[in-house]
Write a structure and sequence with these properties.
Length: 216
Amino acid sequence: MPGITLGDTVPNLEVETTHKNFKLHDYFADSWTVLFSHPGDFTPVCTTELGAMGKYAHEFEQRGVKLLGLSCDDIQSHKDWIPDIEAFTPGSKVTYPIIADPNKEIIPQLNMIDPIENGPSRALHVVGPDCKIKLSFLYPSTTGRNMDEVLRALDSLLMAAKHKNKIATPVNWKPDEPVVISPAVSDEEAKKLFPQGFKTAKLPSKKGYLRVADVS
């Protein structure tokens, strides 16, 4: 995708939202943020997704993570849409702000463009406290997000950051499961980092690159 991507700083745009106006960096400061975009209000897949975000809001709050939506309509349209969102997904409350972008000026600056349809996309950026993009998802218009996967990937990012990126999470990893140690970490350093010990997989190559440890 062209435009900002992993490791890039999100531009410090002034945005109008359903809560108030603010600059993005002020919102991102001192916490992680899930920034997610939608092609438009009163559309079926988007309605289900914003409802799911509202229903999962407590999961993000427990992790100290903020939510920030974006849809390509104006503030009044967003406010009129919210009752539909909450009605369709029982237990959902849209307590997070939604950015207005009726002129589609913000979407391209955040690289939330669908290259197939050449318009606003169903995209998601996880932004760190340093205002840099840590992870991005881009979905076609026909496919809704999997909220459990968004949480799982977020937990992986938080775990790696907690351990200064000296660990990584393997395929299908979930919290409380073992992690793998970065190849950049020597065995001597690994012994200090993981005093509880770690296991090195015995592989046909006899290379000791796949080391597994339990962490918290």
